[in-house]
Amino acid sequence: MTISILWFRRDLRLADHPALLAAVDSSDEVLPVFVRDPVLLARGGVRAERLEASLAALSADTGGALIVRTGEPAAVIAELAETVGADQVHVSRESTPYGRRRDDRVRRALAGDGRELVETGSPYAVGPGRVLNKSGEPYRVFTPFARAWHDHGWPEPGDRPDDISWAADPDSGASEDVDPGPGGAGRGGEAGEQAALARWREFLHEDLTSYGDQRDRPDLDTTSRLSVHLKYGEIHPRTILAELADHPGSDSEGARRFVTELAWREFYADVLWHRPRSAWRDLRDTLEGMDYDEGPETAALVEAWQQGLTGYPFVDAGMRQLRAEGWMHNRVRMVTASFLVKDLHVWWPSGARYFLDHLRDGDLASNNHGWQWVAGTGTDASPYFRVFNPVTQGVKFDPDGDYVRRWIPELAHLSGAAAHEPWRAADGYDHGYPERIVDHAEERRETLRRYDRARGDGS
Ligand SMILES: Cc1cc2nc3c(=O)[nH]c(=O)nc-3n(C[C@H](O)[C@H](O)[C@H](O)COP(=O)(O)OP(=O)(O)OC[C@H]3O[C@@H](n4cnc5c(N)ncnc54)[C@H](O)[C@@H]3O)c2cc1C
Question: Name one Pfam family in it (predicted).
Answer without folding.
Answer: DNA_photolyase
